Amino acid sequence: MMREIKFRGDYRGVMFNNVQIGAQYLGDLLADPEWHIMQYTGMHDSQGKEIYEGDIIKVTAIDGQSYVSPVKYFGDEDYPAFDLDQKYIPEPWYPYESNALSEEFGNGLSKIEVVGNIYENPELMEAGGK
Fold it and tell me: Which residue in 60, 70, 103, 112 could disulfide with 66, CB within 3.0 to 4.6 Å?
């Protein structure tokens, strides 16, 4: 089964869902610093909401402990995948350097919830980070 490829975009604080980008405009759009394009990861949170690059997710374990982390695409860092930003994951919550997002989905023990995104809700990330 193929993953659905779609995008949303933030332009000057206004979120546009299901952004359709023609190839002839893609370079101009990505070069414009006022546009923030976010790709759909192909995953849904525990409530069925689509998860996009730039979303902030809250991960809650069965014991009630939780943390928030942005979903990031790490292609520029030689890791071509969507994952959680490790600097927001408290130690010793997750001892690996990659695949935290896949692990959280795969183990089925954590509740994963989209609580905002880095453009509309930056305050959610202010307290985070190691």
Answer: 60
Cα–Cα nearest to 72, from 110, 98, 107, 95? 98
Full DSSP string of the chain: -PPP--EEEEETTEEEEEE---HHHHHHHHH-TTEEEEEEEEEE-TTS-EEETTEEEEEE-TTS-EEEEEEEE-GGGT--SEEE-GGGSPTTT---SS-HHHHHHHH--SEEEEEEETTT-THHHHT---
Using CA atoms, how far apart are residues 39 and 16, in angstroms rounded to an integer? 12
β-sheet bridge partners, residue 38? 8
Per-residue pLDDT of the chain (130 residues; tens, 9 = 90+): 566 778 888 888 888 887 776 666 677 777 888 888 899 998 999 999 999 999 999 999 888 888 999 999 988 888 888 998 888 888 777 666 668 888 787 777 789 999 999 999 999 988 665 5
Q: Which residues pair with 51 in a beta bridge?
A: 43
Instruction: Give me the residue label for tokens 């993953």.
Output: 3
Cβ proximity of 94 and 100 under 8 Å:
yes
